[in-house]
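#struct-queue
[09:14] JT: dropping the first one here, sequence first, then the structure tokens:
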Amino acid sequence: MDSKGIDQMLSVMRGAAAQAAGRPADASPTSNGGVDFAQVLQNSIAQVNQTQQKAEGMAASFAAGDSDGNIQDVMIALQKANISFQEMIQVRNKLVTAYQDVMNMQV
């Protein structure tokens, strides 16, 4: 299991959510002292993709009869991939809502 990668991805996503809510976040600063939101988002999506690919690989390997893994590890990896994907969807929904709110503001 690569729980370090999941924890890192969750930390980045929580930092992005905190930044969007106006709270200070523990994210890597850019040269101008702010957070590079595009990079944080891109890294988060890459981590989710990597988690899903790893889980699918484990499931395919288990289904093929590979004796290296057991069903518990496969199920845990699939659940981690599902949870990280659902969290990414929730972040996307929040970003879309925030964008719509900004676009509906009257100046």
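[09:21] JT: and here's the second one, same format:
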Amino acid sequence: MQPLLLTMGDPTGIGPEIIIKALLDQVFTDLSHEVQVVGDVNVLSHAARIFDCTAKTEKLDDRLYALCFGASSLIVHSRSDLDVDSIHYGQPDTSCGKAMADYIEYAIDRCLHASAAGIVTCPINKAAINAAGYHFPGHTELLAERCGVDKVVMMLAGERLKVCLVTTHLAHRDVPSRLSCDEILQTLRITSRAFQQQFGIAKPRLAVLALNPHASEEGLFGDEEELIIAPAIKAAQAEGITADGPHSADTLFHFAVKGAYDAVICMYHDQGLIPLKLLHFDDAVNVTLGLPIIRTSVDHGTAYDLAGTGKANISSLVAALQMAEQMADNRKL
């Protein structure tokens, strides 16, 4: 069984310490797939001191180490050689930016060559990565380019609710101009296929939200529903996709949380993220659908204000690992 690769993220954020905390809490032993970390073995060893632990480092091969804490151990693909004395929690620098990108690219390569079951990512600092010469807004764009994919879908998921976004990070005033029948249809296709291939659901039930209040009240509050959203739903249905709508966002989530749908297709970021985080603030998972590989992520940032304190919550990391394993076990090509 191939391992899951857990990328360390920003060395100066909470990534290293939540990995160590998960190890000490025996989180990895509850998974059927082995978890191996892609990061920096010295940074991880340094993070163990936050929990008053001393790690024993054993070199297994070139850039491959075992990090041992008594009976607990962790395989580490150490892809950087950062000076732990010169980096400080909450203060990212260019050397960390390059390291973050290297961790991700190594993990992607392993998955594309079928020597890993999937990637789980800890949070990165986008500014530091771009300062190091990588021109990507974030993880998702880097993953898409390296995997040769033009269109992916961002899904935020919890046990009770899963939301997929047609548009992501842009001003609300720009959302209507970025919506199109084709964009919505592609989102529906990718979501339906991913749920079939990676979540084991033969006919995923997708609810499509309206853009305007009350689904525009037959054109009273806008015409995007009639001109863009409804035609996309009709086209998806013609392809055999189980989708319906446009639904008014102020009522649909009530039924979705009760189990009427497998996922909700949202027109813009906050439309989906507000209800999702109301229910799953600590344990939400960020999933990239449409890639040829499995990628899940914690749904939080580097949390510089908590970095180095040992107080960061590991619930999202645990959920991301569990979801990646579920997707790997269900995967159908």
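[09:30] RK: nice, looked through the second one.
[09:31] RK: The domain at 1-149+291-333 is CATH 3.40.718.10 (Isopropylmalate Dehydrogenase).
[09:31] JT: good to know. The mean pLDDT is 94.
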